[in-house]
């Protein structure tokens, strides 16, 4: 029989155990080992059955056991210490508070919006790297004391659970999640009624949502949930699952996230007294509508659309994670128009102005499509990619929004992602560090960083490192066998068929890990290009390798599912199934065992389509060496001390099959000739001394770089603080001033031109250190010199006379306009490098409130008939 109604009966804890409730409801337990060990002590078997989830654990402990613990003085002392430690963590001064004592310009609060958050497996609201990154961002912000508010959606089915059919085809399952069984609480009014935010929909309908709060250390995470009784059936399903449904479903999710999310933040701050955010951070384009809601708020205060837009842009940061246009959400223009304006959402905001923010109105764009990343960039004064290479890719990708500028001048910077070490470092690794440098110093090294703390790794003996690596590998072998047996039982195998699983993997064999989502560009099956060669590596008589693979294909991606099946069928082969395994249902729980247990982490995407690729960072923090294509973060920080770079064949004339063949061959060659020999090359003491030294250098030198603490500090210093200052400067008067000035400049710009350029070379030849005197005549139309900056741009030139490594030199006006209204600008140009050298001249708009000279996308350059407009000098 099935129940007609389901609800959760919460345990009543004895008074001495009441702190357990607070400890279970703050997700700091997910990265704090002592708190997890305390819960494990409550009921070790129940802890395993609950999957390491304290909320589920407390819901299953018997009253007799609780009464026993309430009389256990030793347990109560541990409980008191854990509660005091959490209180100190939540209330004490941390990095941000120490900074704010010195710098008054730090933001009072930051709102961080993301469509998914991977904080813990107990709160399955993530699909892959974007969500894990967002979860790590919150946790690192908490450790540093950054006053962040996270904003997302609560998906009642989360992302799908993955299993395999007998023939290896991916199957999806969507378990129902009951918020009452999750580590979240409903945001309520003082009288107890749930707080509700509402959006207007076409046809007089409404979309209502409740707000669930997960406490991530010091950081509240607000998650909107549309499964409320006031909604109709289709509205209740808006937050049913992550990345599901058609275009309108996705649009409504993103409207709820952005518009509803801002309203949720306002309600939360009003109820709790949390400082209102000065900075709004949009993690990918899905949350871009938050800017429209903030424009509406300002419009209600009587601020015109253009001025409100400037005020919103000043305090907004946009992060793109997408290296390919296909990865961006794009909606039909008419669909978006139908959901805004009179009779729908944001009725006080002109629909055409909304559409202009997202339409692809640039060369190469689709003019009838509304692009969420384009809107995110137009609504943010500051934007970034997530690695140095991805920043360059993003500048190329979005260059059409800044016509007339070279890609390197497009105002998109980069902050390389990091990972939250306390979450991803195995307890055994932490304990070894704690024994050598002390528990507090080890914790500080993981949370805050600092190369001096990590340098202590050099003092750890080779034998201790190798013993630790084998222990972690052995744990992985046990985990793999358990998961593989469960997977085969799901596939229909009987117990009598599965005796072979007891011989799968070997704790003394070189272990390679590969786990990630399965879009085609990540090339799950590149290792299968030459199956005979791969078999030789797996079954090598003296230097064998074993491979653990995991990953999910999107439910709608049949191509990705075929890749999964191809890999699974190879791993099912009785000849190699003890050496290569595919584990279904990749998630945080599996990852926390997989990263530490592997010796080598494999990554072979199509370069440069990996935005960052943080899984290799998590592996590195556990002493795992990377074997990767030079893409994402590896392109930036690779050194031979840390692993190996897979050569690429990504030239313009290389077809896809040929490129994959070449890169697979390079991968096999690296494993056979360099990776495996180094692992199996043992010294006099039976230890692989050169391998251990690579592990040591990975931890000591790469470890501090890949931390989420480093990443969040960079966001605070390079993006959040400048955005907060810009927000404070952009009051209503300043916003109107800037909006009026931009309109005037845009109207006048067609009459702005470089009329003539001349160079005075009378003081000598073009030698290193000599100076050229530039004299430039420009037309400014209705603008004045204070509206523009005239620049000389000089640097090396290539064979096509394109400037490389250019530097700009501002020129100054030399007197008033002539009779034709032309202005003369002058300035020196120093020849500071030898070889092919060139220069040009340009005019840019300038204003004290602009964040970048390219902000308006306007530039005036010389024509070919302007005289000495772009000379090339040889010396």
UniProtKB/TrEMBL annotation:
<keyword id="KW-0808">Transferase</keyword>
<protein>
    <recommendedName>
        <fullName>glycogen phosphorylase</fullName>
        <ecNumber>2.4.1.1</ecNumber>
    </recommendedName>
</protein>
<dbReference type="InterPro" id="IPR052182">
    <property type="entry name" value="Glycogen/Maltodextrin_Phosph"/>
</dbReference>
<keyword id="KW-0119">Carbohydrate metabolism</keyword>
<dbReference type="Pfam" id="PF00343">
    <property type="entry name" value="Phosphorylase"/>
</dbReference>
<dbReference type="Pfam" id="PF11897">
    <property type="entry name" value="DUF3417"/>
</dbReference>
<dbReference type="InterPro" id="IPR000811">
    <property type="entry name" value="Glyco_trans_35"/>
</dbReference>
<comment type="function">
    <text>Phosphorylase is an important allosteric enzyme in carbohydrate metabolism. Enzymes from different sources differ in their regulatory mechanisms and in their natural substrates. However, all known phosphorylases share catalytic and structural properties.</text>
</comment>
<dbReference type="InterPro" id="IPR011834">
    <property type="entry name" value="Agluc_phsphrylas"/>
</dbReference>
<keyword id="KW-0021">Allosteric enzyme</keyword>
<dbReference type="InterPro" id="IPR035090">
    <property type="entry name" value="Pyridoxal_P_attach_site"/>
</dbReference>
<keyword id="KW-0663">Pyridoxal phosphate</keyword>
<dbReference type="InterPro" id="IPR024517">
    <property type="entry name" value="Glycogen_phosphorylase_DUF3417"/>
</dbReference>
<feature type="domain" description="DUF3417">
    <location>
        <begin position="13"/>
        <end position="123"/>
    </location>
</feature>
<comment type="similarity">
    <text>Belongs to the glycogen phosphorylase family.</text>
</comment>
<keyword id="KW-0328">Glycosyltransferase</keyword>
């Amino acid at each position: 029989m099935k129940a007609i109604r389901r609800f959760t009966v919460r345990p009543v804890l004895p008074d001495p155990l009441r702190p357990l409730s607070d400890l279970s409801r703050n997700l700091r337990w997910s990265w704090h080992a002592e708190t997890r060990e305390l819960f494990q002590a409550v009921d070790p078997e129940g802890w395993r059955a609950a999957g390491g989830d304290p909320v589920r654990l407390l819901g299953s402990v018997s009253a007799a056991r609780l009464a026993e613990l309430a009389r256990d003085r030793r347990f109560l002392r541990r409980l008191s210490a854990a509660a005091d430690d959490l209180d100190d963590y939540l209330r004490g001064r941390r990095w941000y508070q120490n900074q704010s004592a010195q710098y008054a310009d730090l933001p009072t609060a930051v709102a961080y919006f993301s469509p998914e958050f991977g904080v813990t497996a107990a709160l399955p609201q993530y699909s892959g790297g974007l969500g894990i990154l967002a979860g790590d961002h919150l946790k690192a912000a908490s450790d540093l004391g950054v006053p962040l508010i996270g904003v997302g959606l609560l998906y009642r089915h989360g992302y799908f659970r993955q299993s395999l059919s007998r023939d290896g085809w991916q199957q999806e399952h969507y378990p129902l999640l009951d918020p009452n069984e999750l580590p979240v609480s409903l945001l309520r009014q003082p009288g107890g009624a749930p707080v509700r935010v509402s959006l207007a929909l076409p046809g007089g309908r409404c979309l209502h949502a409740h707000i669930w709060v997960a406490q991530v250390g010091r950081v509240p995470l607000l998650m909107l949930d549309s499964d409320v009784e006031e909604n109709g059936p289709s509205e209740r399903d808006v937050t049913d699952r992550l990345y599901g449904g058609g275009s309108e479903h996705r649009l409504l999710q993103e409207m709820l996230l952005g518009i509803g999310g801002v309203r949720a933040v306002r309600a939360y701050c009003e109820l709790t007294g949390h400082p209102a955010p000065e900075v709004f951070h949009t993690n990918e384009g899905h949350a871009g509508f938050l800017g429209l809601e903030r424009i509406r708020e300002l419009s209600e205060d009587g601020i015109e659309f253009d001025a409100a837009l400037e005020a919103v842009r000043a305090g907004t940061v946009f992060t793109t994670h997408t290296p390919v246009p296909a990865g961006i959400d794009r909606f039909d223009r008419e669909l978006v128009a139908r959901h805004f304006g009179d009779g729908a959402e944001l009725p006080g905001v002109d629909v055409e102005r909304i559409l202009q923010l997202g339409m692809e109105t640039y060369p190469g764009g689709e003019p009838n499509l509304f692009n969420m990343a384009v809107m995110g960039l137009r609504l943010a004064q500051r934007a970034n990619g997530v690695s140095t290479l991805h920043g360059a890719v993003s500048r190329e990708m979005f260059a059409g929004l800044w016509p007339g500028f070279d890609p390197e001048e497009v105002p998109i910077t980069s902050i390389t992602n990091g990972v939250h070490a306390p979450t991803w470092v195995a307890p055994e690794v932490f304990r070894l560090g704690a024994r050598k440098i002390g528990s507090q110093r080890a914790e500080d090294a993981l949370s805050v960083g600092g190369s001096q703390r990590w340098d202590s790794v050099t003092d750890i003996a080779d034998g201790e490192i190798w013993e630790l690596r084998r222990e972690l590998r052995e744990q992985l072998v046990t985990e793999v066998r358990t998961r593989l047996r469960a997977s085969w039982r799901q596939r229909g195998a009987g117990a009598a068929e599965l005796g072979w699983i007891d011989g799968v993997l070997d704790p003394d064999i070189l272990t390679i890990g590969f786990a990630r989502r399965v879009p085609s560009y990540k090339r799950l099956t590149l290792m299968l290009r030459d199956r005979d060669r791969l078999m030789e590596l797996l079954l090598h008589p003296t230097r064998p390798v074993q491979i653990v693979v995991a990953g999910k294909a999107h439910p709608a991606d049949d191509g990705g599912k075929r890749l999964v099946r191809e890999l699974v069928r190879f791993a099912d082969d009785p000849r190699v199934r003890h050496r290569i395994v595919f584990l279904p249902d990749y998630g945080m729980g599996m990852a926390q065992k997989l990263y530490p247990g592997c010796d080598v982490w494999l990554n072979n995407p199509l370069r440069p389509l990996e935005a960052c690729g943080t899984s290799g960072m998590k592996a590195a923090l556990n002493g795992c060496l990377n074997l990767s294509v030079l893409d994402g973060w590896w392109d930036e920080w690779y050194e031979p001390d840390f692993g190996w770079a897979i050569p690429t064949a990504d030239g313009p004339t290389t077809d896809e099959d040929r490129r994959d063949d070449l890169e697979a061959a390079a991968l096999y060659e690296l494993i056979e000739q360099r990776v495996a020999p180094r692992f199996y090359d043992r010294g006099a003491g039976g230890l692989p001394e050169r391998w251990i030294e690579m592990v040591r250098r990975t931890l000591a030198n790469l470890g501090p770089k890949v931390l989420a603490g480093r990443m969040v500090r960079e966001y605070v210093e390079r993006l959040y603080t400048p955005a907060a200052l810009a927000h404070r400067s952009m009051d209503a008067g300043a916003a109107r001033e800037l909006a009026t000035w931009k309109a005037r400049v845009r109207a006048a710009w067609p009459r702005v031109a470089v009329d003539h350029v001349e160079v005075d070379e009378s003081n000598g030849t073009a030698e290193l250190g000599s100076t050229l005197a530039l004299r430039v005549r420009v037309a400014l139309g209705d603008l004045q010199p204070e509206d523009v900056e005239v620049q000389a741009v000089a640097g090396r030139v290539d064979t096509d006379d394109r400037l490389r490594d250019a530097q700009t030199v501002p020129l100054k006006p030399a007197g008033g306009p002539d009779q034709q209204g032309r202005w003369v600008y002058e300035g020196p140009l120093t020849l500071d490098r030898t070889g092919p050298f060139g220069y040009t001249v340009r005019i840019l708009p300038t204003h004290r409130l602009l964040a970048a000279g390219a902000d308006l996308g306007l530039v005036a350059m010389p024509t070919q008939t302007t005289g000495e407009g772009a000379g090339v000098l040889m010396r």
